From TrEMBL:
Keywords: Membrane, Transmembrane, Transmembrane helix
Domain Acyltransferase, residue spans: 106-405
Protein name in UniProt: Acyltransferase 3 domain-containing protein
PANTHER family in the cross-refs: MEMBRANE-BOUND ACYLTRANSFERASE YKRP-RELATED
Region annotation Disordered: where it falls in the sequence: 37-64
Lineage: Bacteria, Pseudomonadati, Pseudomonadota, Alphaproteobacteria, Rhodobacterales
Pfam families tied to this protein: Acyl_transf_3
Ranges of biased composition (kind: Basic residues): 38-48
Lineage: superkingdom: Bacteria
Species in which this protein is naturally found: Rhodovulum sulfidophilum
Amino acid sequence: MAADLLAARPDPRRAGSARLCDLVRADPARALALAAARRSRHAHRPRASRGVADARGLAAARDQHRQFQLLRRLDRARRRPRPAARPRPPPRRARGVAMTVAARTLWIDVAKAFAIFFVVFGHVWRGIHDAGLLADARVFAAVDNAIYLFHMPLFFFLSGLTFSGTRHAWPDFLRRLGRSIVLPYVIWSVALVAVKQGAGGTVNHPVGFADLLGIAYAPISPFWFFYALFLIQITARLCLPRVGLAGTLALAILGFLAHFLNPNPGTPIDFALEFLPYFALGLLFQPLRARPPRVGPAGALTAGLLFLGPPLLCLGWSIGYETLPGRIAAVPMILAASAFCLWFAGTAAGSAWPIVMAGRATLAIYCLHIFFTGTTRAVLMKLGVVDVWPQLLVATLLGMIAPIMIQRAATRFGVVGWLGFPPLPAAPNLRAA
């Protein structure tokens, strides 16, 4: 390349300089080597006399100076650190398009809030009835059957939908179970017995310290949920790696049928067999977590009608929620509730942070609401408030709001782990969803 540059005519230095400049733009490393070779070659050349210096020498000097400036600028640019790339702002979500990533996960929190609301309402409803404040037995049975037809199956479905036990080794899996299930089970079983012992005869269902000694095999109501979920997750961790999802579904159906043949219902194993199919149904729908289907207003309306259908059919045909047809009727209600929550998360999530907070505080609400609903009922009765609607409204609101405030305060002061709950952050910003 150097020989070609020197052989150019009629102005070898000027032509070579122009080609070298082009080479700098195309291949900087090769241009540096070529410039160094030219400097060393010109250094051994004898100096021309003063009379020979003419316009060609001045042009060559200017070209050489330009080459030097270009190479120095190139070297500085190579050594200068590159500026950090500016983060791109998130794209705005247009109305009517598919959900964002945040909305894809928020719908699970919305569904948890939906389920825990009916858990609290159902316990308040039963407490009012047991206290003798609700005289109409038919109304009580219809509402009670509609609530218990789906709310606990929905919880087990969501637990299966978010199950990730097979991704962890057994020690880590058991450690997670101990922190999320066993610890709150023990803490709040002890707390419930202590509070009921202190309340004396004002409680509807008294328990003693002898019941506390048997929580290893006989959970205190309503903490049977923790015991059953513990057994179900152990079963899923054992079965999924060995027989796969299809085998786990088959075992769940067999266990479900065995539950109705069990002559001794009400044990933790019996509860686990009863609700294992809903957990397996959640496992089946796990692939839809990353890419859930889009639900529009028409789909939400259809889901609402489908949700109301099974309770009305069970009411018309006198089907109880604990029967085989009643447990099967819970499946379309679960799917309809999930579809409605998908629509809600995709349209109104930006203004629904209280609902999302309730969904993220489900564990605290489940463990603590009993203390507030029972106390509220007793206080209102002492004050002479025996009407059903004030009792329902005040007790349900306190049962939902007070546990959230306690978990949030415990998170702020760093003692939430002592209560057996996960940290609860402040109100989330859901505008991007």
